[in-house]
From TrEMBL:
GO terms for molecular function: transition metal ion binding. Pfam families: FeoA. It comes from Ralstonia mojiangensis. InterPro entries: Fe-transptr_FeoA-like, FeoA, FeoA_core_dom, Transcriptional_repressor_C. Residues 1-77 form the Ferrous iron transporter FeoA-like domain. The keyword Iron applies. The keyword Iron applies. This is Ferrous iron transport protein A.
């Protein structure tokens, strides 16, 4: 499945990024941004007109991608071992622990 086919709020795992041509600069940049094998990715929002662009989240970072860029990212369904509701996002992550002075 392609990232561009993932529905809003759906979570998946990056399988790989396809190169459309040798040394594809867009695919290389996607990998540099964190779209690497095994990384969880989530579609946060879609544009109002034709669904372009997509807002996707990798880790705690969000990106706006055109559908044609997102189509380069191949994903697989979220593993059943970790339901999507259990994935920490910036909104749901527990607060950081504060060290008390001695």
């Amino acid at each position: 499945m392609r990232l561009s086919e993932l529905s809003r709020r759906a979570t998946a795992v990056v399988d790989h990024v396809e190169d459309r041509e040798p040394a594809d600069p867009i695919s290389q940049r996607l990998r540099e941004l964190g779209f690497v094998t095994g990384e969880e990715v989530r579609v946060v929002a879609v544009g109002p007109f034709g669904g372009d662009p997509l807002v996707v989240q990798v880790g705690f970072t969000r990106f706006a991608l055109r559908r044609q860029e997102a189509a380069r990212v191949r994903v697989r369904a979220e593993s059943a071992t970790q339901p999507a509701a259990a994935i920490a996002t910036p909104e749901t992550a527990p607060p950081a622990k504060v060290r008390e002075a001695a």
